[in-house]
Amino acid sequence: MSTVTTSGTWPSLSTNPPNLEGLSTENVKWGIPAGGGGKSGYAFAGGTREVKLDGSEFTLGTFTHQNFPIQAMPQSQFQVDLAVRIRFEEDDTDRNFSFRFRHNETDNAGPTPDDEVDLPTRVSPETVTIDGEEYAVVITGFKQNGQIVTKFISPENGANSADIVAVLSRVGAPDVVIADVRYKGEVKRTQADEYVEIVNRGTAPADISGWVLGADDPGQDFPFPPGTVLQPGDRIRVYTNQVHPQWGGFSYGKGRPIWNDSGDTARLRDANGTIVSDYNYGTAATP
Q: pTM for the full model?
């Protein structure tokens, strides 16, 4: 475990918007206001936290999108670079890591006015050596409204924030685990909206073709189809009987609940049948 302190700045954009200010600071802004709310922009706020080297997720910092109506931009889609400095308190050293955010500035008056922010790649090109092992920082999502999501949805006329969730991961290897089980759905009787969430916390892609998600009961196995590859930081969900393309589109297609309401264990096995990840859920979970 390491104690780290993070801070960040925004050094560059892939476009040259009007009224650009704050480059290389923690708050970059752009655009000609179309109302009384001011410019749009990004802010980053770091902090001090404990970081484990076992793949546990931690908060890299808090991302805020100041999403106020602005006049049409030269480009509606562009990239914004983030530079994060991490100070490792044990040896009093600083390390710099960089990431690229992809911004979609939507039409303020359109049917979907909310802006969208995601990351085309989630692994820092820079690394750090700890106890003889080389690690990179992998962003695994934005924690928004209590859930970790891969795409940040930012409503108009406000400053919208989310924690950036990341891991320190060994360079050159995937790390696929079950991250969550929603075992009590809201759809009556069928609980079609149950799901299991799986994430690749590693720095390399993971081919999970032929892997099986299940609860070790008949009819509760889901084999992943050929060509299923999780990129670093990717999150997918396997729903009981719903299809959500933004989460990979995976579904058991069952008209009855899969996961025990009182609790159990979800298991992920590779193509050879070896257990890759266990996830105990609910009060009746096996220790």
A: 0.90
